[in-house]
Amino acid sequence: MAYIHSLARILFILSVVFLSIYFLYSPSNTINHPTSLSPNYIEAAIEETRIEINENLKHFTYPSSIPGSNIKTKKDLLKFRERMDCISTKGKWVYDDTPRAILRHKQEPIFARCDKNSKPLDKNASIEEIWDNSRNSVKYKWETPHKCPLPSFTREDFCSLITGLKFLLVGDVTSFQLHELLLNYFHDGS
Asked: Residue 94: what pLDDT?
């Protein structure tokens, strides 16, 4: 129950912050808002919100494992979270012109339109030919610090991990994008 209460408080605080930002930066014609706020006032409001969130997070209880995984102890869970935090927040996008296979969007029409504008190539085109005719936006890769390298894997490695498992992706746009990524990655075994 404390878990739900803490989560509800955090969601309430975040809602207040976002609504405050919305009303502070897009004044309505019907409400007489000051057109500009002093930077000190804004900084003070941000700091007050930051303190409130940190106080509420202290009371937030984390489970000691991840059900359905090999992470069974609090120590392993904290180590996993630290690694995920390092990978997701300490990395950066780096342009890499090394030829490699390009993932084509096959299901999502908005993203697929970008790839359809590329020069059509022979089905037997080499990776280098495909690479040379690909848009620059797909030539970036996520690079993490040496202390938390990203694991590399092949389709065969991934398939051996998920063989016999069932997946249900439930959620928002992020889940939909993961669904599309998996479909594109394994489409026709290519």
From this structure: 92
